[in-house]
Amino acid sequence: MSKLPLAPFEKILKESRKGIRVSDSATKEFVFLMGEIAKDLAYECAELAEHANRKTILDSDVKLAGKRRK
User: Fold this and answer.
1) Which residue of 3, 29, 30, 45 has the smallest Cβ count within 10 Å?
2) Which residues contact 44 (CB under 8 A, 6 or more apart)?
3) What is the DSSP track for 1-70?
4) Is 1 part of any domain?
């Protein structure tokens, strides 16, 4: 089970297309997937900070990690 709240992600899914409905199981699966993506992104941010000999993740690390995922 994810630690992420369901409601904001359900809203994101519903806002993806006018009139779309979203099942509870779809919301849970979406939240699980987003959690996995977030973990991977956090790991990459930490790697970038370590590579720069820092113990602090900076916004620049997050931006770079995000660009590299595209």
Assistant:
1) 3
2) 65, 68, 69
3) --SS-HHHHHHHHHTTSTT----HHHHHHHHHHHHHHHHHHHHHHHHHHHHTT-SS--HHHHHHHHHHH-
4) no
Longest C-alpha distance within the chain, in Å? 49
Among residues 44, 69, 40, 38, which one has the least CA distance to residue 57? 44
| pTM, to two decimals | 0.84
Q: Looking at the domain assignment, is residue 45 inside a domain?
A: yes
CATH assignment of the domain containing 24: 1.10.20.10
pLDDT tens, position by position, 8-55: 999 999 999 999 999 999 999 999 999 999 999 999 999 999 999 999
Pairwise CA distance, residues 56 & 70, whole Å: 24
